[in-house]
Amino acid sequence: MIWVEILGRHGDVVARHRCEGAETTIGRGYDNDVIVDDPTVAPRHLRIVRDPEGRLVAFDEGTSNGLYDGDRGPLARVAVDGDRPLRIGRTQLRIREASHAVAPERKALPATHVWPRALAVAAAVIALETFLAWLGDTTERKLARYVLPLGGLIVITLAWTSAWAILTRIFSGQARFERHLLIACSGLLAFSLWDELVDAVAFAFSWRALADYEYIGMWALLAIVCYFHLREVAPVHLRLKAGLVFGLGAAAAAAQTLAQSELKPWNARDASLRDQKPPFMRVVAPKDGAAFFADVEQLKPKLDRARKEETPAGSLADDED
Question: Which end of the chain has less Cβ packing within 10 Å, N or C?
């Protein structure tokens, strides 16, 4: 006895057929053991038998669209292993024996267990953002400066979560809003912590490059968040999804790096931290006054030569003058 499984586009089982006998046929004709409703499948497309060693082998019956083992094909015969899907026409199927071992059951996590986690992470994000806003507020305290940014953040988070929940409802039949909310809030918390960590380390070590290229970590975090969202939409082709989101993240970071390098001459100001940090957080000792004025003296000859040289016509300096 064998089982023939018809797979959907996400690798999920659409139909499962039990077949007994020494030979099993698959095709569009009504005289087959398994009938496939696909116009690109031949009336008698596939024949499955056992070889002398007892292994299942699938034979193509001389069809026009052929038999494919993954991306390999068309093939005249394929040894069936029970894991790799076969393709005939536009239909993917999988052939397994009754003794095929299946994975153990996954522990079901009810939505009532996910909601407390999602709300706890959301509360942590709100508390962190409120604390950071209070820490960086150097003017008169006004409630609008705290409420409006938090309100906008909540609206954006709910819209982002709803979009992913709708996609999950379309492709998987369940919205799983609470799971997407947990992923989105965890991503926001990671964004905030990464931003503060970069600021603290850049200030402590006077590491300007870290502040310049902080966005690379942001793109990486966004790719991770999108991967977990896609895994909830449909937990199939995970390697392909990971490669896609991280490839897009790397491309976006590279494009931003290119734009930043080309715009640098137009905006030559060095990157600086948005918030001042307490002096005790400094690890690298600041440069003393003598060293600072020594650097200024070395710059004077270069500046004098630059003033004497004629500025090219049509340059940015002419426009500014």
Answer: C
b (16+ CB within 10 A) / e for 63-91: bebbbbbeeebeeeebebeeeeebbbbeb
Give the burial class of 202: count Cβ atoms within 10 A of its Cβ; 0-12 exposed, 13-18 middle, 19 or more buried.
buried
Task: Give the span between the Cα atoms of 235 and 11, in whole angstroms.
Answer: 9
Start-end ranges of CATH 2.60.200.20 in the chain? 2-97
How far apart are alpha carbons 32 and 19 in whole angstroms? 11
- Cβ atoms of residues 187 and 179 within 8 Å: no
Q: Which residues contact 300 (CB under 8 A, 6 or more apart)?
A: none
> CA–CA separation, 180 vs 73, rounded Å?
39
| Under 8 Å between Cβ of 214 and 272 | no
pLDDT digits (tens, 9 = 90+) for 272-286: 566 667 777 788 777
The CA distances from residue 161 to 194, 233, 289, in Å, are 21, 12, 53
- Structure-block tokens of residue 134: 């209070």
CATH number for the domain running over 2-97:
2.60.200.20
Phi/psi at 4 (5° precision): -110, 120
Assess contact for 179 and 213: CB atoms under 8 A.
no
Report the C-alpha dihedral over residues 309, 312, 316, 320, rounded to 10 degrees: 60
Per-residue pLDDT tens for 82-109? Answer: 888 888 888 889 888 888 888 888 776 6
**Residue 287 DSSP symbol:** P
Whether the link from the prior residue into 74 is cis, omega within 30° of 0, is yes
Question: How many other β-carbons are positioned within 10 Å of the β-carbon of residue 289?
Answer: 8
| Token pair of 25 as six digits | 């046929």
